[in-house]
Design goal:
Two copies of one chain form a homodimer. With 197 residues, chain A is α/β, with parallel strands linked by helices. Chain A has eight helices and six strands; from the N terminus they run H-H-H-E-E-H-E-H-E-H-E-H-E-H. A four-stranded parallel beta sheet of chain A has the order 4-3-5-6. In chain A, strands 1-2 form a two-stranded antiparallel sheet. The radius of gyration of chain A is 21 Å and the shape is globular.
Chain lengths: 197, 197
């Protein structure tokens, strides 16, 4: 138990709500905020309020946006939809600057053990988009853990026989890494997905 | 470079001002705040504003407080002053529940290389307290790194010949740790500070 006075204890407690932040780290953050000038602390508060007031979900793809539909949905090729878990996956792919299609952000990964079920993710919205008939390809860019595989399998099954091409990001050895350090599943997938050169 | 929209990028940037938070962690925090309910985000903001508005420095000891002088300075024995760097050191000692004296929070450690000089810490306030003549003992609970030692030495020199007893927290092997893992300085201090039992 900490002996901090109430306003500090309350701030520490708020910081523990951030992902991966325990009591010690939350204390460091709270004391840092206290040591900020009033203007800096106000900037912090304004940034939170500004983000909460101006950021919403795109009604098409489910990504965070200021305008609806979002910039990507407003300007890009809707015949290819890349399905991801989270907004940070969109950010990672956009940083490559190569993909010209649009996204669908599910809002998580299927994980019944953690109470993330089919109804909790934006599957219905995805299937409604696909029923419009403009889609030629769905790229399943879900993660390669059990939940990501389950999520991809669920979508792939739904689309079977729809005539829409369904692809999955290639799995294999990471670029620049040594064979000996790859885990067995990765190595096995790299073998079965081997490419003729 | 990240492709987040402006309100998110701004929030990410604010989080990087917290100690030890890089771009990736700041993104996780920002996305977590966005996923909070409006009420939760408002609680976050209120906790920051509440702390900034209600927490000040105690005019006697320099610790964070809501009332001035602070609860510790108002109720405890002023004949023993324990000198520490930061408010979190007070918290650590208070958690023991053993010390009955008061504190003096310097606000940091002497570190000329990082531009923390004598004028930046609350030394003058300490010496003014000591000149009142109520003090029998000053416990130097500064850290055991170079900066903490320099800070302690500076105070000890100032008090030489003042008749005030000056003590330093014992240094030695940590409780429950193996001799072989102690660094040389620690082991050497444990030897020179050995106690008759």
């Amino acid at each position: 138990m900490s002996n901090y006075i109430e306003p500090i204890a309350r701030l520490v407690n708020m910081f523990t709500k951030l992902p991966g932040v325990g009591a010690k780290t939350a204390q460091r953050y709270a004391l840092k905020v206290l040591s900020m000038s009033d203007a800096e602390a106000q900037n912090f508060v304004d940034a939170i309020l500004h983000a909460k007031q101006n950021v919403k979900l795109c009604s098409v793809c489910g990504n965070y946006t200021e305008q609806d539909p979002c910039k990507i949905c407003s300007t890009r090729d809707h015949s290819i939809i890349c399905v991801v878990h989270e907004t940070k996956d969109v950010d990672a792919i956009e940083r490559l600057g190569e993909f010209k299609g649009v996204y669908h952000v599910l809002g998580g990964a299927l994980n019944p053990a953690n109470n993330v079920n089919i109804g909790d993710l934006r599957f219905a919205e995805l299937f409604r988009r696909l029923q419009k008939g403009d889609t030629k390809e769905v790229i399943l860019a879900t993660n390669t853990r059990v939940e990501g595989e389950a999520t991809a399998t669920y979508i792939a099954r739904f689309l079977k026989g729809s005539g829409i091409k369904v692809t999955r990001l290639a799995q294999g050895i990471s670029s620049g890494s040594e064979l000996q350090y790859a885990d067995e599943v990765t190595l096995s997938r790299a073998f079965s997905n081997r490419q003729e050169i």
